[in-house]
Structure formats: C-alpha cells, structure tokens
Design brief:
The complex is a heterodimer of chains A (77) and B (617).
Chain A: E1 2-8, H1 14-25, E2 30-38, E3 43-48, H2 55-64, E4 69-76
Antiparallel strand pairs in A: 1-3, 1-4, 2-3
Chain B: H1 2-7, H2 9-28, H3 33-60, H4 66-79, H5 83-107, H6 109-116, E1 121-125, E2 131-135, E3 144-147, E4 156-167, H7 169-172, E5 178-180, E6 185-186, E7 191-203, H8 209-222, H9 226-253, H10 256-265, H11 270-288, E8 291-293, H12 296-302, E9 307-310, H13 313-316, E10 322-328, H14 333-344, H15 350-359, E11 367-373, E12 377-382, E13 385-390, H16 392-397, H17 404-415, E14 419-425, E15 428-436, H18 443-452, E16 457-461, H19 466-476, E17 480-482, H20 487-499, E18 504-508, H21 514-519, E19 522-527, H22 531-536, E20 539-542, H23 548-583, H24 589-608
Parallel strand pairs in B: 9-16, 9-18, 16-17, 18-19, 19-20
Antiparallel strand pairs in B: 1-2, 1-3, 3-7, 4-5, 4-6, 4-7, 8-20, 10-15, 11-12, 12-13, 13-14, 14-15
Helix pairs in contact in B: 2-3, 2-5, 3-4, 3-5, 4-5, 4-10, 5-24, 6-11, 8-11, 9-10, 9-11, 10-24, 11-23, 11-24, 12-23, 14-15, 23-24
Classes of the chains: A alpha+beta (77), B alpha+beta (617).
Chain lengths: 77, 617
C-alpha cells in the first residue's frame, strides 16, 4: 500500500469534491475508507495498492473530471 | 478540447455578458428584434457549453451536480425559445463562479501565506565535501546542510558549526531573533538573520515542527462538525431530489416552464459553501495571530465555554521561581553565601536552582557528609562547619533558636507568598531567603477580557500549597483556586464540573495533564512548539503566549456567529425563492439564479470579515 497526497488547482465549488471522490473511488485498488478530498486546501489524500493501480491512473482519473493536478507526493505505508 | 473550453470559462462569461448587453440595447434602443434574438441565442449556446461539459463529467462518475440542474434548465428554456432566460441564467452562473473563485482565494490567503513560508531548497553536503543546492524533499535525516544569512532553515536540526541569530516567528509567532551556536536546535521555516551555520538534519518534511503545524492547519480548515457533515449528506441527496421534484411537477402540472424554474431555484447555492467559508477564514485569522484552532467542532465548543481551568500556577506565573526577599543575620555574608551555593549546587530542586542563580559566581567548597532530610532540607559539613539549609521544620529539628526578629521576618515572607529557605551555620541562623514565582505580565488584564467575553468561572488547580495558590488567585481575581492537586484530582474535578452541565476548557502544557486535556471539552495547550502539545490538544497557543487566549475566545465566538449567519442567509434564500415561486407572479429563472449567486457572494464576503477580526477590548 502507498499513500498519495495530491495537490490540485484551487477548488471553488463544493460539488467538485463529490466529482473527484466519485472518479477516484471508481478505480480498482483504492482504499475507499482513506480517501479524503479537502475543499479548502484543495488536496486529495488516499491510500492505494500500487500493484493494482498506479499513481498516474489516479492523476488521470482526476484530470478526466476536469481538475488539474499540480503536485503529487507518494509515500510507502 | 473540454479542457480548453473550461480554461476559457471566464472569457466565455464576459463574452456572453457583452452579447446580452448588445441584445438588450438593440431590442429596446433600436427595436431590432432580430439582432437581439441572435445575440441571445449565441450567448446561450456559448454559455451553456462549459456548464454542460462539467455536467457530463459529473454524470460520468454518477454525481448529480448543480451543473446538471442548470444544464437541463437552460436547455429546456432554449427549447421553448425563451432565449432571454437561457442567456441570462448561463451568464449569471459563469460570472458567479468567477467571482466566487476570486473571493475564495482571498479568504484562503491567510493559510496560504503560512504554507508559503515552507522552505523549498537546501544546501546539502555532497560526498566530496562541497555543498550543492537540492530540493528540500531530497534532504534525509542525518544529512549535513549549510544555511547562509537570509536563508530559511530547511529542516529541523542541530547546529554543528557556526553561529548566528534566527528569527523563529514562523514557529513561535515571536519575531525576536534567537542566538544559536553549536548544539542549538533549529527549526524548519525559520530564517537565519545573520551568520552562517552548518546543521545536521534531525527531522525532515512533514515530521518537522513547521510541517506538523501546516498539516494541522490544513486538516483543521477542512475538518467538519456534526452540522456540516449533515449538510454534506443532505446536499448529496438534495440535488437529485430537486431533479426528481421538478420532473414530478412537470408530470402533474404539464407546466414545462415551472418545472425548469424549480431546477434553478432548487440549487443548493450558499448552503454548501457558507459554513466552510466561515471556518477557513476563522482558522486563517487564528493562524496569523498565533492561535491554532483544530477545526470547526473546536470553534463551536469553545465559543460556548463556561469555565476555564488552569492547570498549574506556572501557567499564570512565569514558572521560574526567583529569590524575591532576603534577610541577612550575619557579617561574613560572602562566606555564608559561598557555603549556601556549595550545598545548593548539588541539588536540582527548583528552590536550590533559584538560590544558585541568585548568588551567581562564588567560591565553591567541597561538601561532605551530605544528609538530605525529607521534607526539610539538607544538612552538610563544609570546611569543618555544620551547615543546615532548609525550612523552619529543619531548623527546629536541628534545635537552632529563632529570635524575635527572625520570627517576624518569617511571618512577613510567608504572607507575601514566598517559599522559605533558611541557612544556619554551626547552629546559628545566618540567612533567610524568600523565593516565589512572579505573575506573568498582562495576565490580569487577559483574565478580565475572558470574563468580559462571558466566561463565568476561572479556576486554578495546582500542585502547589494552598497558600501560594490563594495568593495568586486573590491577585488575579480568580473564581476558585485549589492547591495540593495531583493530575488525577484535576481530572476528577473537571468531571465534576461537567456533571453540573458546564462546558469546560482546560489550559495546560500537554505533558503531565493529558488526561485532563483529553477530558475537557476543549484542551488548550500552551505549546512552545512541542509535538506533544500540538497533537494532544484542540487549541494551541503558540510560544506559550497567554495573551493569545482572549483573542482565541473572541475569534471562536465571532466565527461561530458568522457560521450561523451564513446558514440563515443560505436557507433563507432558498425558502424565499420557493415561496415566491408559489405565491408570486414575477418569479422566474433569471431572478432565481441572480438571488443564488448573490447569496453565495454574500456568505463569502461575510466570512471574509473574520480575516480582519480583532478583539475589541
């Protein structure tokens, strides 16, 4: 398992969070419990199984619903 | 392509705004209906494109967002050829989003400033001994780093060589430069004002004190209270519900226009954004003023506090006992002082340290046959003399006579709240010293402010003796003060207060009193930036600065009020809109959208007021 902290462009509408949550949750290998999209700091924190899903996949999923990924940090758990 | 259009959202808003103006001028000034209609058609299509894209993206991940409601409503208006409505609604929606973005950035600025203080690069020693610039993420524990004048310390570490002065404002909130030399601790995010130092990295990245503060503040601004979680759950089902209701209305009334109007009026608008906005602005204000508030639940609780309990005398006093009064009954003062210092030098009792500090540099003798009398003091032999240092009980035990003057002095010193240290040499009293802690400057005024802010009880629970505690309590005007309290007595006392229905805040240093900190509804740590204090408490007063407490209380009260105002505004607007749809003739989509966007701006602006909050008295 790895832990990703993804900094997004500034989020401005709270429904954005629902969209991002939905997009990330739809991926395989995501620890749904750990997923946390924070509105004010515009960050996504999530644990994922790097054998099933790559950090690139997660970034792409967020990008696809229309939010730019600024910076990503991945840590071993 | 989708991205390109979304990126140009703001430009689209302005173009469709311009088109709407053209449409209205040509219609009313030049009576040219054709140009008017075409302008509105173009404005509608242009305006709905980015909204429709967002709606599509949301639906793809099974979310019914506001964009979905607006897209359906606008498309509907367009189909029944109400171009005026479709153009104005899309314009307002886009323009509103633009203004929200601008104002939101402003609201978040306080916390952003804090995050921007994070160091970005470091000069790291390579294998050949030279320093090269690397990103701060590449620094590992144990690396040797060079910090030059004017640079930020990149990590928490220990000084290896060099000297300098460091501004630690980012950690302590105090901008007085602190001198650092070999062996001193330095903290990430602080600035070296002069000198050059080499440090070894002890903690890096998120583990540094600064990293923890940032993480704490970031989590705090997004932490949610019960009410907010309710609103969140509510809005998850709210938007789909509006869609369903509009559909039912259409089926029943066969009034298409009414149905699409409901879609727009039903947008949750200010409801979802109102509370988070107050929260982020309040926490941002605190961060600027050395008060770390851990989230909106804390704000809510502390704003209603009845009783503040202080954990020990040291919170209200400087916590550093000093020799305050002395009487000397001997001629050979220097010699007696030298004996006294020699005895006390071997002890680490706070009173002993105060005496050593007071006497300063002196000749030190070899102390022999030291005998520690429990609860009394020390008896020892120095240079052939029998020296007794301790309290009155010790002297009585040693059968040392106290004359009338000495007894009067002892009574006077005790009345002043001193702890007494008597020194006798060869069975004769030589020196009487009174040692006491000083009350922190300004504490009295701060406590007054807390009372004015509505705190009913100020209570001191201390391990000190009742006399000292009473003295502090009288001087400061505390409601109650209890001495001889062990940590478990304190938590039992807090439980008792809570059983009486009081909301209790406990102010402590977070190390010994963690049960009480955890038990009280609000645990307030006087943190000198230590990890334990930051982690165990709900509110952290940076740099142990007591004077931040009234600001913290005033701020949480203002923030809680602000949240309530925003909820009232948000709910009020939705109710008024729906009521006027039923009871009035003039309600339509454009007015509804205008009201929604205005209410969102109003709650954001209202929240922004908190950024400038200052305690009035």
């Amino acid at each position: 398992m790895k832990k990703a902290t993804i900094q997004l462009e500034t989020l401005t509408c709270p429904t954005c969070m629902l969209k991002i949550e939905g997009a990330v949750k739809a991926l395989d290998g995501i620890d749904k419990e750990s997923l946390n999209v924070s509105f004010n700091s515009s960050k996504v924190k999530v644990n994922f199984d790097d054998e099933k899903v790559s950090i690139k996949d997660i970034e792409n999923a967020i990008d696809k619903v229309g939010y730019e990924v600024k910076k990503t940090q991945v840590k071993e758990l | 392509m989708q991205k390109f259009i979304l990126g140009k959202k703001n430009n689209i808003a302005f173009i469709s705004g311009a088109l709407i103006i053209i449409a209205f001028t040509s219609h009313y000034a030049f009576h040219n209906i054709n140009i008017a209609i075409w302008s509105l058609v173009i404005a509608s299509i242009l305006g709905v494109t980015p909204i429709a894209i967002q709606a599509y993206q949301a639906l793809k991940v099974k979310v019914v967002s506001i964009d979905v409601l607006v897209t359906i409503a606008v498309t509907g208006a367009f189909l029944i050829q109400n171009f005026e409505e479709s153009a104005i609604v899309t314009f307002l929606f886009l323009f509103g989003a633009y203004l929200e973005q601008r104002t939101l950035n402003k609201t978040r600025s306080a916390i952003k400033e804090l995050i921007e203080m994070a160091p970005e690069s470091a000069l790291k020693q390579t294998e050949n001994g030279e320093f090269e610039e690397v990103e701060v993420d590449e620094v590992d524990v144990g690396d040797i780093l060079l910090v030059k004048t004017g640079a930020k310390v990149p990590v928490d570490g220990t000084v290896l060589t060099g000297e300098g002065h460091i501004n630690e404002a980012s950690i302590t909130g105090e901008s007085v430069p602190v001198g650092k030399k070999k062996g001193s601790q330095v903290y990430a995010g602080t600035i070296l004002e002069n000198g050059t130092i080499q440090i070894v990295a002890d903690r890096v990245g998120e583990d540094t004190t600064f990293g923890k503060i940032i993480e704490l503040v970031e989590e705090a601004q997004d932490s949610k209270s019960e009410t907010e979680r309710f609103i969140d759950r509510f809005s998850k089902y709210y938007t789909p519900a509006v869609l369903v209701i509009a559909f039912i209305v259409w089926l029943l009334s066969r009034d298409f226009e009414l149905a699409i109007t409901i879609l727009v009026l039903g947008c949750p608008g200010a409801l979802v954004i109102g509370v988070p906005i107050s929260n982020v602005a309040g926490i941002g204000n605190g961060a600027r003023h050395g008060v770390l508030l851990k989230g909106s639940e804390v704000i809510h609780d502390f704003s209603k506090v009845d009783t503040i309990v202080f954990d020990k005398t040291g919170t209200l006093t400087i916590g550093n006992p000093k020799v305050a009064d002395k009487e000397i009954y001997a001629e050979n003062v220097d010699e007696v002082f030298a004996y006294l210092a020699s005895v006390e030098n071997e002890s680490d009792h706070p009173l002993a340290r105060a005496i050593v500090e007071y006497i300063g540099d002196t000749k030190l003798y070899t102390v022999e046959k030291t005998d520690v009398v429990k609860g009394g003091g020390i008896v020892a032999h120095i240079d052939g003399h029998r020296v007794a240092v301790g309290n009155v009980a010790l002297l009585e035990q040693e059968n040392i006579p106290l004359n009338e003057k000495a007894r009067a002095d002892i009574a006077r010193f005790e009345a002043n709240g001193n702890s007494l240290v008597l020194t006798a040499v060869d069975g004769e009293l030589k020196v009487l010293m009174g040692i006491r802690d000083q009350i922190r400057p300004g504490v009295k005024e701060d406590l007054q402010k807390l009372k004015k802010l509505g705190v009913k009880n100020l209570i001191l629970l201390s391990g000190d003796n009742q006399g000292t505690v009473d003295l502090v309590a009288n001087e400061l005007g505390l409601t109650e003060a209890h001495g001889h309290m062990l940590p478990e007595d304190k938590s039992a006392y807090i439980e008792e207060l809570q059983a009486k229905g009081q909301i209790v805040a406990f102010v402590g240093d977070g190390v010994n009193d963690s049960p009480s900190l955890a038990l009280a509804q609000i645990g307030i740590a006087m943190g000198g930036g230590t990890d334990v204090a930051i982690e165990t408490s709900d509110i952290v007063l940076m740099n142990s600065d007591f004077s931040r407490l009234p600001h913290a209380l005033g701020l949480t009260k203002a923030t809680a009020l602000n949240m309530r105002q925003n909820i009232v505004i948000a709910v009020g607007v939705v109710i008024i809109l729906l009521a006027s749809l039923i009871f009035s003739e003039w309600m339509n989509m454009s007015i509804g959208m205008l009201a929604h966007e205005l209410s969102i701006l109003v709650v954001i602006l209202n929240g922004m007021r908190l950024l400038g909050y200052k305690l009035k008295y």
